[in-house]
Amino acid sequence: MKIDRIVMRQLRMPLVHFFETSFGRTHERDIIIVEVTAGGISGWGEVTAGENPFYNEEWTAAAWLIVRDYCAPRVLQRELDSADNVAPLFEHIRGHRMARGGLEAAIWDLEARLAGLPLYRHIGGGAHREIPCGVSIGVQDSVEQLLEKIQCELAAGYQRIKMKIKPGWDVDVVRAVRHKFPAIKLMVDANSAYTLADAAHLKRLDEFYLMMIEQPLSHDDIIDHAHLQSQLETPICLDECIRTAHHAEQAIAMRACGIINIKLGRVGGFSEARRLHDVAQAAGIPVWCGGMLEAGIGRAHNIALSTLPNFTLPGDVSASGRYWKRDVITPPVETTPRGTITVRDDPGFGYAIDHDFMQSITLREETLA
Predict the structure, then answer these.
(1) Is 0.85 topped by the overall pTM?
(2) Right CATH number for 5-116 from 2.160.10.10, 3.40.50.300, 3.20.20.100, 3.30.390.10?
(3) What are 333-338's contacts with CB under 8 Å, separation 24+?
(4) 164 is catalytic
(5) Is residue 350 over pLDDT 90?
(6) Is 263 a residue of the active site?
């Protein structure tokens, strides 16, 4: 496989509804799409970095430069034995895993298409032919608005509700949700909004029999999470601080978590995601697929990833229509009435590109050859 062309596009897509976490409110997404071509066939990837360096150190403007100036030259016009050989070519680039992962995922998609295989089979998946879906609901303007949104998502069939929390929007809000919905699968995500000094406060969440508390402490911490987990009955799920399979090994050895969220971009693509999956599976730690407000290409990649066997908990892989009036793939990702996504068997990630719509929302485009 020889990559003869890479096309980078930056899209701007307004969200159907704002999405708020502990570090801010998002109304629209600037998304980098990477197209790689070999032998007249294109593979597609999505860089999942946000518009600002708040979730991690990456953001759209910097990711564009990393892909263009550092990642692309390492694969362009180069004979590649397999997509699994791509990640090592980027290893000496410190950090910037979302930028690296967007290009790496595109090459996995390309290789699957060249082989005439669905991407999920090409990465070794297929244990699940339907993906159980949950939703992530951001901080709302009022508790009443939050309860209405949860009711709407449950009516749509979603199997698990994740609500964002932050200081001042946590225990009392979760109590209201539990009172209204006593039997639903419920988890909370703090996006690193607390410190170990808040342990007693966070322990109050134990009374609500949550599935998990996601990344309550610092984005780069494992040790304090181990101390916190020893004080909680509720499992901690680690997200931001698990960027490699080795990080997962360390966290598991320290008993810092009971669950791990695998985000394809955060860990740098399919090769590392599969290794992390295997480490967690061997340790008996369940994993699930987190979301980064992806457009359809990234969403389709998440579906493929979620077919690996240890993805046993509902992920944040939901329908396109929850986020976008119109998606860049066709058909859009849709859920069944039972809150699942059916895996498609078309070559590559399984959906067609809506080229006309993509072109209409493209802010800039650059071809590398």
Answers:
(1) yes
(2) 3.30.390.10
(3) 333/296, 333/299, 333/300, 333/303, 335/133, 335/156, 335/157, 335/158, 336/130, 336/157, 337/157, 338/157
(4) yes
(5) yes
(6) yes
